[in-house]
Write a structure and sequence with these properties.
72% of the residues lie in helices and 3% in strands. A two-stranded antiparallel ribbon has the order 1-2. It has helices at 2-32, 39-56, 59-64, 72-98, 106-128, 154-176, 178-188, 190-195, 200-225, 235-248, 253-273, 279-293, and strands spanning 143-147, 150-153.
C-alpha cells in the first residue's frame, strides 16, 4: 500500500510539470489554432536560462566545490528570471516566425513550427554543446512528512505548490482580467475582436509569452527533480505535454490539467508495475486511443470548420 501511495505522489508531481507545459500548447492553440511544436524547445531554453541564472548567482561554483546551495530565495529568483527569459523568447518566436505568416494556410504555420523547433535544438547544441550539464540543487530533497508509510518530500511539495499557484493565477488571469477577456475574444474571432478595438497582435504576443513563461516554470521544477540539462531535453516532455493537452481537450485549460494528471499517473504506475521501457510509448498509445474514440478530448467540444 505504501508503495502504491508513493507512486501516486510521484505521478501527481510529474503530472503537475506536464500540466504547466500543456497549458502553453492549449493557450496558443486556443487563440491561433496552431500546434506550436517549438514549445518543448522553449522549455529547453528556459532550463539553460535557469542554469545561467544559477551561474550568475555563484551557485555553479558552490556545486563544483561540493557545498550545499539549497535556498528558497535562490529558487524563487531563478524561477522568476527563467520565466522572464522564456517569455521574451516566446514573444520573439511569435513576432519573427509566426506573425509574418498570419493569414497564410495553416500548413505553412505548422511547417514553420517544426522548423523553429529544429532551429532551436541545433542552435542550442552549437551554443551550449551536446554534453548534458548538471543543475544546482536549489531545494533540499528531504522527507517532509509521511502518508500511510509513503514519504512526501520537500521537493514534491515545492513542485505541487508552485504548479498549483501558477495554475490558479492563470485561471484568474484568463477569466477575471481585462487581458484575459480580450484573449478569449480573440480566440473566438480575430476579425470581431479587431472591430471591437482589441489589439489582436498584442494579445497573441502576450499569449505566447505567458505560455512560454509557464513552460519555464516547468523547466525549473523538472530540473529540480531531474537535474540534467541538454539541448534535446524538451523533446519528450514536449510531446507528452502535447498528448496531455489533446487528451484533456486541446484549447481547454482545465482539460489540459486533467490530461496531464492522467498521463503523469499512468506513466508512473506503468513504470512501477509494468515495464519501464513502455513508459514513453504510453503517451503515444493514449494519443492514438483518444483520437480514435474521442477526438475532441475528455473536456473538449466539437467545432465545425470550413475546409
Amino acid at each position: 500500500m505504501a508503495t502504491f501511495i508513493q507512486n501516486l505522489i510521484n505521478g501527481v508531481s510529474l503530472g503537475s510539470i506536464y500540466a504547466l507545459i500543456a497549458l502553453g500548447y492549449t493557450l496558443v492553440y486556443g487563440i491561433l489554432r496552431l500546434i506550436n511544436f517549438a514549445h518543448g524547445d522553449l522549455f529547453m531554453l528556459a532550463a539553460y536560462a535557469a542554469l545561467g541564472a544559477c551561474a550568475a548567482l555563484g551557485l555553479g561554483d558552490a556545486v563544483s566545490a561540493g557545498l550545499p546551495v539549497s535556498s528558497w530565495g535562490a529558487f524563487a529568483l531563478v524561477l522568476a528570471l527563467s520565466m522572464a527569459a522564456a517569455a521574451a523568447a516566446g514573444w520573439l518566436v511569435e513576432r519573427l516566425a509566426y506573425r509574418p505568416l498570419r493569414g497564410q494556410p495553416r500548413l505553412n504555420l505548422l511547417i514553420t513550427a517544426v522548423g523553429v523547433s529544429l532551429l532551436l535544438e541545433n542552435g542550442a547544441q552549437a551554443v551550449f554543446g551536446a554534453s548534458p550539464r548538471r543543475v544546482p540543487a536549489l531545494i533540499v530533497d528531504a522527507p517532509a512528512f509521511s502518508v500511510a508509510g509513503a514519504q512526501v518530500s520537500v521537493l514534491d511539495l515545492a513542485v505541487l505548490g508552485c504548479a498549483l499557484a501558477l495554475l490558479l493565477a492563470l485561471d484568474v488571469w484568463v477569466h477575471r482580467t481585462r487581458m484575459g477577456r480580450a484573449m478569449r475574444a480573440v480566440s473566438h474571432s480575430h476579425e470581431t475582436a479587431a472591430l471591437l478595438g482589441i489589439p489582436v497582435d498584442r494579445v497573441i504576443s502576450i499569449t505566447f509569452a505567458v505560455g512560454s513563461a509557464l513552460a519555464a516554470a516547468a523547466a525549473v521544477l523538472y530540473g529540480a527533480k531531474y537535474p540534467k540539462v541538454d539541448p534535446l531535453m524538451g523533446v519528450m516532455p514536449g510531446i507528452k505535454a502535447f498528448v496531455a493537452a489533446v487528451l484533456g481537450g486541446i484549447g481547454n485549460l482545465r482539460g489540459a490539467v486533467l490530461g496531464a494528471m492522467i498521463l503523469g499517473l499512468a506513466e508512473t504506475l506503468v513504470a512501477a508495475y509494468g515495464a519501464s521501457s513502455w513508459r514513453d510509448a504510453l503517451a503515444f498509445g493514449l494519443l492514438i486511443l483518444i483520437l480514435l474514440f474521442k477526438p475532441s478530448g475528455l473536456l473538449g467540444s466539437h467545432q465545425r470548420e470550413k475546409v
